[in-house]
Design brief:
alpha+beta; 4 strands; Alpha-Beta Plaits; single chain; 2 helices; 4-stranded antiparallel beta sheet
């Protein structure tokens, strides 16, 4: 598990992601994001989401890695049950 942001992350455009994940898939989604080289500042708030219900995952993603991160998450969680939002 990586403990530091990727080198030079402050110079790259970052997206802040808010992801609602059903509780039964939260651990898998968290592990997937933690292993992704473009993801940093990962936080999980169990049970925080109310509509839809689930865990709230927050992270920053280097813009160049965002597509890869979304594709990987799509395999774990359906789009309908886990809306992801990003902001610059």
């Amino acid at each position: 598990m990586r403990t530091q942001p990727p080198p030079g992350w402050w110079e790259l455009g970052m997206l802040h992601l808010r992801i609602i994940v059903p509780a039964d898939r939260s651990a898998a989604a968290t592990e997937l994001l933690a292993a992704h080289p473009g993801v940093t500042h990962l936080a999980v708030i169990p049970g925080a989401a109310r509509q839809p219900a689930g865990d709230l995952i927050l992270c920053d993603v280097v813009r160049e890695s965002a597509d890869q991160a979304f594709k990987a998450l799509r395999d774990l969680v359906s789009r309908r049950s886990s809306p992801a939002r990003s902001s610059p």
